[in-house]
Amino acid sequence: MMARIERKEVDVAAARSSLERMLLGSYLDSFNVSSLQVILRLINTRACPGKSLYVDLSFSCAATLRDGRTFSSNPGNVDFFVGREEFLPEVYGKIGAGISGVDLDSDGRLVLSMGDSVIELFATDEDMVLEESVWQVAMENPTGSGLSLGGSVSCVSTGNAVIFTFGIES
What we know:
It is built from two helices and eleven strands; from the N terminus they run βαββββαββββββ. The strands form two sheets. The chain has a seven-stranded antiparallel sheet, with helices on one face. By secondary structure, the chain is mainly β. It has helices at about 10-25, 80-90, and strands spanning about 5-10, 25-35, 40-45, 55-60, 60-65, 100-105, 110-115, 115-120, 135-140, 150-155, 160-170. The longest helix has 13 residues, at about 80-90.
């Protein structure tokens, strides 16, 4: 029987809390790139003692990797393909690095601190396609543990703004 994913809209504080649970302490294991999407695969060893759980961060929005002490000047003007060309070699150098901080704002900007660097995902005008996912973080559910840790948090465009949704298998 195929599992159904139930989605419900959540506020930014609830989305941030779920993201922290899934991402804090996770480390970057690998990444996969297609023409319009990047997937960062992380491994979380803290959520379920004795198990390593995959956490996939997929996005089709603009992304930067920068020094943690600097701020983006105007990330909204970054062309997706130009930005990706700069982002990919930099993120390769972060394989094995752990996530020490997670921040989220109501505009859908997701900021992950990794040592002295920051990965920043942000929605641009280009990403504001009705009901399209801007980014999603999904953690697998541990098998045989009796725990329900899996689920996903998505940033979804409403056409002129973003909302956050939480999804869990039912």
